[in-house]
Hints:
five-stranded mixed β-sheet, Ubiquitin-like (UB roll), single chain
Amino acid sequence: MAxxxxxxxxxxxxxxxxxxxxxxSDATVxxxxxxxxxxQRHPEALGSKVGIFGxxxxxxxxxxxxxxxxxxxxxxxxxxxxxxxxxxQSKAARARRKRVR
Length: 101
């Protein structure tokens, strides 16, 4: 049976953990995660969402030669909430500058 080469990446604040593995040509995302050993080294990644080249996929999706399987960390804050907070701060700063003049 032919083999494929894939990269499994888990990006952390301290730096990325990237592992290249060789698997059977019928391997799935779950097979790549197990073979990489990343989940054993980083148990906090268990249950995380995964993707291939930035596109979310399920663990049972078959992978192809050259794919990059990515393990995504949960967001620290919802992007919409972050935007609202920045807009609120900006509005308050503009109001303060108006009063000073």
